[in-house]
Amino acid sequence: MHSCSGFWRCGTSVDASAYTTTVPDLTSKTAMRISVPGLTTIAFILLLLPTAALAQIPTRGNVFFGYSYGSADFSSNGRTNLNGWNGSLEGKVLPWIGFVVDVSGLYGSQDIPVSPSFSADTNVNTVVLGPRVPSG
Fold first, then answer.
1. Is 3 part of a structural domain of the chain?
2. What is the Cα–Cα distance from 124 to 80, expressed in whole angstroms?
3. What's the confidence (pLDDT) of residue 131?
4. How far apart are CA 66 and CA 61, in angstroms?
5. β-bridge mates for residue 98, sequence order
6. Contact of 63 with 89, CB cutoff 8 Å
7. Distance between CA 64 and CA 116 in Å, rounded?
8. Is residue 81 part of a domain?
């Protein structure tokens, strides 16, 4: 004996014409149009995705170089603006530990209000080194 359950309905017929598919005419000029900005956006996204995936691959190390800004109280005359650079180099010792060297330099000058007036040049150089392990 056959029992009906679930989504099957016993004793009903299915109209096959409800499931027919029409194929679009691809030779027509109005079949599908993609604008140039839309195509450019799609191409840009498709080119960007592999780059983002490659950024997740572990490397042998990292290199960084950039601008640095500092502000300091060197005299009672006010704050001194310091501009400079910062650089970092990391070499992987093991896949989960690296050794890092970070160097930086900041440079500036400040006018000192004494008679005769003069300007004091300032520079601050730092070197930091040590191990780096990933967090989490």
1. no
2. 12
3. 93
4. 17
5. 92, 132
6. yes
7. 43
8. yes
Judge contact between 45 and 52, C-beta under 8 A. no
Question: Containing H/E element for 46?
Answer: helix 36-54
CA 134 to chain centre: 18
Please determine, for residue 30, whether its predicted confidence score (pLDDT) is greater than 60. Answer: no
Answer with the residue of higher pLDDT: 91 or 57.
Answer: 91
> What is the structure's pLDDT at 21?
61
- In terms of phi and psi (left: phi > 0; alpha: psi -120 to 50; beta: otherwise), the region of 80 is beta
DSSP-derived 3-state class of residue 18? helix
Contact 100, 129 (CB under 8 A): yes
9: alpha, beta or left? (left if phi > 0; alpha if psi -120 to 50): beta
Domain membership of residue 136 (yes or no) is yes
Residue 47 within any structural domain of the chain: no
Please, what's the largest Cα pairwise distance for the chain?
114
E strand or H helix at 42: helix 36-54
Q: Which domain holds residue 106?
A: 57-136
Q: How many folded domains does the chain comprise? A: 1
- Tokens read off for 45: 């996204």
Identify whether the C-beta of residue 65 lies closer than 8 Å to the C-beta of residue 84. Answer: no
Residue 7 CA, distance from chain mean position:
48
